[in-house]
Specification:
The complex is a heterodimer of chains A (about 250) and B (about 280). By secondary structure, chain A is α/β, with parallel strands linked by helices. Chain A is built from nine helices and ten strands. The radius of gyration of chain A is 18 Å and the shape is globular. Chain A folds into two domains: about 150 residues, Rossmann fold; about 80 residues, no CATH class. Chain B has about 280 residues and is mostly helical. Chain B has two domains: about 35 residues; about 210 residues, MetI-like fold. In chain B, α4 packs parallel to α11. The chains are: A alpha/beta (about 250), B mainly alpha (about 280). Chains A and B meet through α2, β6 and α4 of A and α8 and α9 of B. Bound molecules: adenosine-5'-triphosphate and magnesium ion (MG).
């Protein structure tokens, strides 16, 4: 049994925007899967259906054997604890401290009154510091999140995801708002996480990053899978299939 | 049809529409003039009697200063009580009245009800509420506080809700994705984004309530305004003047304090750290 099994997934945004149609694929534990495709091809929709930030319209998504699409809100919370997400716009609580942001990755494990009062146990705080250390910014813990640079904010986003100790990491264009050098650093962290046995599913726009980090690539076009294979096998023809004749390669590489 | 053509097309109609609007306005103005007694000679004829009022400013009757200060403090209490009691209600209602948080069919119904109710209550001036409550529970500070309270709840609910509606959903989404429930999403995703505006609006409302607390005194809502009005009715201008001065000082002081505090909340007193950090 694969870790993630998606069958006949379909998403229609009301009233009638078909973002995904008949998507089926499986992801094995430990894969580094990259989703590529033009803007509007459905990458974000696909990633967000997996943890149901977006409600799928039809089809089935099984994570470690459990059906996600029909899970009750309680079951869904438990599933989500094992699936972390990193966002293109970081989605940090800008007015809160970096440390608080990292700690929010672990809210689900906290008793309600502790969360209400913001009283995190010492052990959790130490873990949060350790995660910041992992992403190389231990000294930023007590700054406000919005004082950090984009690259630093994305590291906080990764630290927050790590705090969850997830089995699967979803990263929706994690480097799209960063410069190339910073992008490399962020991708290296994702690769490191992947090396520790965590599955990574990410959407990327740069083909060289796809080739460098991905163990597998899925190409989306108009909500359909048009490519599924090794990133290194994406030749010019395949490329045109995914991105269309008019898309010039320079924009992507 | 191009935009230019459209403009040309509707040109004459727009011109005549404007002419009609202006003509109607002028007609209404002239009609109103004939209905209202705009007798400017009254201003001159009755001038001597106001001299008595103005000259009172030169010789205030300071014997009522102690009484005035006590009433002033009472008035402040009224405004403070009304604002403090309105705050918890407004906080709860503001979430129920925020469109972006109220998505399900039932929630949408609640949203419509809350916002509709708030705007009806808001559209009735505090002084009218004061009259309603004075009739209900008799004169004194209590109906005054009630009047300010109900208007504050509605006003703050509207302002707060609009603020909630403009929040960034990113952090909420991020927290939701960790498997946290609704309460936690609210506390960690929403509250940090709204706490400073809420504080700022509350101070602003306190400022308004202090002014209003003096006005509603006139219809029996208690406080210094009520005493001021009774001195004026007795033509005791030297005493009325003392009350007026005290009111001016209080309103000016609260206005100053509130705007300084709000400035601090919004800028945190420095460039880098804006507002309070959670
Ligand atoms: N909330 C929404 N409501 C309606 N339509 C939406 C919504 N979100 C996305 N869509 C539509 O669904 C399709 C897929 O969008 P999606 O955001 O998944 O694309 P994407 O591949 O992530 O694009 P990008 O590279 O620009 O992020 C698009 O046609 C988009 O317009
Ligand atoms: Mg996207």
């Amino acid at each position: 049994m694969a870790q993630l099994e998606i069958e006949h997934l379909k998403k229609v945004y009301p009233p009638n925007v078909v973002a995904l149609k008949d998507i089926s694929f499986e992801v094995e534990k430990g894969e580094f899967l990259v989703v590529i495709g033009l803007s509007g091809s459905g990458k974000s929709t696909l990633l967000r259906c997996i943890n149901r930030l977006i409600e799928p319209t039809e089809g089935s998504i099984k994570f470690e054997g459990e059906e996600v699409t029909t899970a009750s809100s309680k079951e869904l919370k438990l599933i989500r604890e094992d699936i972390a997400m990193v966002f293109q716009r970081f989605n940090l609580i800008e007015r809160s401290l970096v440390l608080t942001n990292v700690l929010t990755g672990q809210l689900a494990e906290l008793s309600l009154w502790r969360s209400l009062l913001g009283r995190f146990p010492r052990e959790l705080k130490e873990r949060a510091h350790a995660k910041l250390e992992t992403v190389g910014i231990p000294e930023q813990a007590f700054k406000r999140a919005d004082e950090l640079s984009g690259g630093q904010q994305q590291r906080v986003g990764i630290a927050r995801a790590l705090m969850q100790d997830p089995k699967l990491l979803l990263a929706d264009e994690p480097v799209s708002s960063l410069d190339p050098a910073t992008s490399g650093t962020i991708m290296d962290y994702l690769a490191e996480i992947n090396d520790q046995g965590k599955t990574v599913i990410t959407s990327l726009h740069f083909l060289d990053l796809v080739r460098k980090y991905g163990t597998r690539a899925i190409g989306l076009k108009d909500g359909k899978i048009v490519y599924d294979g090794h990133p290194k096998d994406i030749d010019d023809e395949k490329f045109k299939e995914v991105f269309g004749e008019e898309a010039e390669k320079v924009h992507i590489t | 049809m191009s935009t230019e053509e459209k403009i040309k097309e509707r040109g004459p109609w727009y011109f005549w529409r404007n002419v009609i609007v202006v003509a109607l306005f002028l007609a209404a103005f002239v009609y109103a003039l004939t209905r209202i007694n705009l007798d400017l000679t009254l201003l001159a004829k009755n001038f001597p009697s106001t001299i008595k009022l103005w000259s009172a400013f030169a010789k205030p009757d300071w014997s009522v200063l102690g009484e005035g200060v006590t009433l002033l403090i009472k008035t402040l209490y009224m405004a403070f009580m009304a604002t403090a009691l309105a705050l918890p209600f407004a906080i709860v209602l503001s979430f129920l009245g925020a469109k972006n948080l109220m998505q399900s069919p039932v929630a949408k119904g609640i949203y419509t009800f809350v916002r509709g109710f708030a705007s009806i209550i808001r559209s009735i001036q505090p002084i009218i509420w004061a009259i309603i409550f004075v009739v209900w529970v008799r004169t004194g500070p209590f109906p005054g506080v009630l009047a300010l309270w109900i208007h504050s709840v509605a006003d703050m609910t509207k302002l707060f809700s609009e603020r909630v509606e403009s929040i960034d959903v990113g952090p909420m989404e991020a927290i939701e994705s960790t498997g946290a429930g609704k309460v936690l999403i609210l506390i960690y995703g929403v509250v940090p984004q709204i706490i400073n505006p809420y504080l700022s609006f509350t101070l602003y409302r306190l400022d308004i309530n202090v002014r209003m607390a003096t006005i509603i005194g006139i219809v029996g809502g208690g406080g210094i305004g009520m005493r001021l009005y009774s001195y004026i009715r007795k033509w005791n201008f030297p005493k009325a003047v003392v009350m007026t001065m005290l009111i001016i000082i209080m309103v000016w002081g609260i206005d100053y304090l509130s705007s300084r505090l709000r400035e601090r909340i919004e800028t945190g007193g420095g460039e880098k750290t804006k507002g309070f950090t959670i």
